[in-house]
Write a structure and sequence with these properties.
With 132 residues, this protein is α+β, with helices and mostly antiparallel strands. It is built from four helices and five strands. 23% of the residues lie in helices and 24% in strands. A hairpin with a 2-residue loop joins strand 4 and strand 5. The two termini are 25 Å apart. The relative contact order is 0.14.
């Protein structure tokens, strides 16, 4: 999980009892929170400084289950550049026309993936990307 995604909730203790994903969460950040968030038997927090470090630790924790990366464009880009992701599910939400970070195009890391499924709802596009 990106630091920005972690900080979207006003009170980080919210995750322990409310977050739909009850699993170890590896937050990529250079800044540790002032206080450790509440944890439970299923959800724990681990603060690491790189995507690669977070992904490797998440793979170990997940065992034979999938690893989910949560974050904005910089997280997707880190996953694409790392070469660790075989498939990605993107939920693209329109916030402003013409803004944001491009993931695809010449020299961008998304060029090694192709879109294998698309679903749309008002204001949102869901895409499944698979490595070529």
């Amino acid at each position: 999980m990106s630091r920005r995604s972690f900080e979207t909730v006003e009170d980080p203790d919210w995750f322990a009892d409310n977050y739909e994903i009850q699993a170890p969460i590896f937050v990529v950040t250079d800044v540790q929170p002032e206080r450790r968030p509440k944890e439970n038997d299923h959800l724990s927090f681990h603060f690491v400084t790189s995507f690669a470090q977070a992904f490797e630790q998440a793979k170990t924790a997940a065992g034979d289950k999938a690893v989910l990366a949560i974050g904005e464009a910089s997280t997707v880009e880190a996953a694409l550049l790392s070469g660790m992701a075989d498939e990605m599910w993107l939920r693209v939400v329109a916030r402003s026309t013409g803004g944001g970070t491009p993931l695809f195009g010449p020299g961008r890391p998304g060029k090694d993936f192709y879109v294998s499924a698309v679903d749309t709802t008002p204001g949102t596009v869901h895409m499944k990307l698979q490595r070529r």
